[in-house]
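In the present case, backbone shapes were mapped to integers, as reproduced here:
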Amino acid sequence: MTTAALSQIIGTAVIDDGFRSALLANPRGALAQFNLEAKELSDIASFRATTIEQFAERLIVWMNDHEPEWS
């Protein structure tokens, strides 16, 4: 996964109300359209957030923790 792909998830959530709602309610289902490896999908789908800001914060922390794996 690249920074661009992860940014696409957040970018889509910012501009698409339906995707944003789905991402917060059912992350695994919402993320299915992105080219994520199984571990990435599992990790990111496990985020619990009620706002896109909370989700983005968790994604940034996850990215920082996993940067050597995908950069």
Observations:
- The mean pLDDT is 89.
